[in-house]
Amino acid sequence: MSETQTNIYKVAREYAGMSRVNAAEGLAISASCLKDYEIDWRQCPDAIALAMSKLYRTPWLRVQHLQKNVVFCDVFGLIPPADDLAVNMLRAQKEVGEVVELFPQMVAKTVQKKHLGDSLLKECREGAQALLVLIGIEEEQKEKTPHANREPLTYK
């Protein structure tokens, strides 16, 4: 790996202020295994990336890890960074609104057993990306304020 590139797993660990040995212990893996993930010698399994995200309190690591997955990126594309909740909420409203407007066309094509087409799939992908950003923001907020401003789950 190039010296100028940063590794998402190492950045997250350093952000948490943890040594490699302490982090490896918390993840129940060897320090050398963690080092291999941090220098891209070994692919980090999803379960370890999720455990890292929780241990390091870095919910953004989940999205960054997913973006290393070829299948995920093929389906959803690259997820834009989530800097501003208000802007991302408006973006989600716009993108999901466009998908809702196109739903009758998608239903008709499905009934006719026709391919949805690249433009319709592009709109669906953009809506999914916008929603994933909001989910990521919400997860990050839950990490910062574990019980504040949470609505109870209700089932209808």
Structure description:
The chain is an all-alpha fold. It folds into 2 domains: 8-68, Orthogonal Bundle (434 Repressor (Amino-terminal Domain)), CATH 1.10.260; 77-144. Helix content is 67%, strand content 0%. The chain is built from 8 helices and no strands. It has helices spanning 8-16, 20-27, 31-38, 46-56, 60-66, 70-76, 85-111, 118-144. The longest helix is centred in the middle third of the chain and has 27 residues, at 85-111. It is elongated, with a radius of gyration of 19 Å. The mean pLDDT is 83.
Count of DSSP E strands? 0
Which sequence of SSEs, written as H and E, runs from N to C?
HHHHHHHH
Shape: elongated
- Summing up helix and strand content along with how strands pair, one would put the structural category as mainly alpha
C-alpha Rg (nearest Å): 19 Å
For the largest beta-sheet, the strand count, sense and barrel status come to: none
Q: Can you count the helices?
A: 8
Would you identify the regions where 5 or more consecutive residues have pLDDT less than 50?
A: none
Kindly report how far apart the N and C termini lie. Answer: 51 Å
Q: Output mean pLDDT.
A: 83
Number of domains: 2
Strand fraction:
under 5%
The helical percent reads 55-70%
